[in-house]
Amino acid sequence: MSIKVDLADFWHESTRSEKEKNRLYLYLKSLVDIELSDEPDVLIYSCFGRTHRMFKGPKIYFTGENDRPDFRNCDFALTFDADSQNNFRLPLYRIYDFFDSFVSDRQERIALHTGEEKFCSFVASNGSPELHRNKFLDILSSKKEVSSGGRFRNNVGGPVDDKIEFLASHRFNISFENESNLGYTTEKLGEALASGTVPIYWGNEEVIHEFNPQAFINAHNFSSLEELAEFVMKVDGDEELYQSYLSAEPIVGGWAAIEERDGQLRARLNDFFTHLPNDPVGCSLRNKLRRIPKLLEQVILK
Prior knowledge:
Layout: E1 3-8, H1 16-20, H2 23-31, E2 34-36, E3 42-45, E4 59-62, E5 76-79, E6 87-89, H3 102-111, E7 118-122, H4 132-141, E8 146-148, H5 163-168, E9 170-176, H6 188-195, E10 198-202, E11 217-218, H7 225-236, H8 239-247, H9 254-274, H10 281-301
Parallel strand pairs: 1-2, 1-3, 3-4, 4-5, 5-6, 7-8, 7-9, 9-10, 10-11
Helix pairs in contact: 3-6, 4-7
């Protein structure tokens, strides 16, 4: 029997047709028997609103942002944090379409390399000068032209339509996260690896436990962004060294490790759906809040 779910407070998915295309929903649906409903058994929500607070039943929180779950409002969470009683580690990159065909697509793109690829790609929209990636863009661009395919400092004639293909046409990609936090890994590194380019990564210092450090240039191994840029130039000028990055298995443990994690999540979700809480956390909190005016009234009368 399918578990009826609804989605709330995601980036901009509010209509039924938008929800049906939601990356998280499609990924979870491939693991467990769920279906969208306007009268859900469980609400799956994210961090871009407060609609979820109106729902009285069991709730699952998901975030791909550098954010933490509030377990006063959810019964289970899917975040970048390590596994715990109420949380399962699900980094944002896992729910992206490119990841399911990661191995075969990557090898095909690497095989198409002709040696005429452009130097380095960069795709971003946030132009804050405080961001590490924008500082590194300035440093690396002073050494060799970097192709910017996003809205920030675009120099390729406008934002690119196909990010993976754009990355694939370059030898390197600046794959910096917005922020550095243990466990926080978005789609950026995975996209670059899947495209058959060599990522230059900064963000999650623990990422080497999931992605092979031999397959990308890790900014955390260098004392400064200037030193990092010098090393990128060294790799660019040494074809044997460059090819060693491309030939490395990108995923620690290979695809079997990904399938194992999928199986673990399937088990956790099935257990949650089988034992849905009779008194969900959010519902209990609301009931307590409702009682506050009555308690205050009793205190005043005394």
